[in-house]
């Protein structure tokens, strides 16, 4: 939004008479559509390719921010994405045959130990009943046999887990981790690309707030451009004629310093009044209300006009 929207007094929107004609009029300034190019990262400005007031085509390089830190961050994220890809491939391949053979060997060893523990317990039981060995020795043998049987069951479960392969839930988690890593790397690649600031549309470089070597904070405007095929008049329509002004209505735009009026067309008019709340005004005071409107210039030479010029707009009679 143009700065003039905030600083123009309501008196600019008074109904004026021009050259003896009783046509509804409004005052304001000439403006262009503005676009702001924010800083994608808090980096130092290392190159400026344009100057203020220069006309540029879409895609023209405007300025360059330092890329070393952002490129390093991108390399790290890409490495994490490759790591996630390899981890997913490992899950998809499943356990190796060597791991299954090792688990089977562990099961055999556990079964042998369990058999030995059960045999020892079986030998101690009759001796314990005859009180030839201590009861505590029998209890330890029974516990060892039970522990050995538990080790066999654990080894059997480990072998079955390897033989059944990777669970579908683990594969889903691996795919999600890979997608997240790739998305982060892609976002950082976009940020790296944005450090080379180019014109998104054809237009005029209106302002370059920072100079070579400055480090703008994240989101700060690096460049402001004026874009569009032609400027428009931003005017304030007084309340007495608001009802007769409509979007699409023809108008005549008088620019300070030019005798010949330019044709225009109303492209927007606000529903809410400017400056003073409508509920604070009654009776004759209501005539002090004004409504922000924009009138596009349709003349052939309008594209050469600068922003900020005072304008006066006459509206054509509205169709009944």
Automatic annotation (TrEMBL):
Q: Cellular component GO terms, alphabetically? A: cell envelope
Tell me which UniProt keywords the record has, alphabetically: Coiled coil
Q: Which PROSITE patterns match?
A: PROKAR_LIPOPROTEIN
- Coiled-coil segments: 67-94
The UniProt entry, under Gene3D superfamilies, shows:
Helix hairpin bin
Q: What is its main location?
A: other
Could you tell me where this protein is found in the cell?
Answer: Cell envelope
Q: Which residues form the YbhG-like alpha-helical hairpin domain?
A: 78-193
User: What is this protein identified as?
Assistant: HlyD family efflux transporter periplasmic adaptor subunit
Species of origin: Lysobacter silvisoli
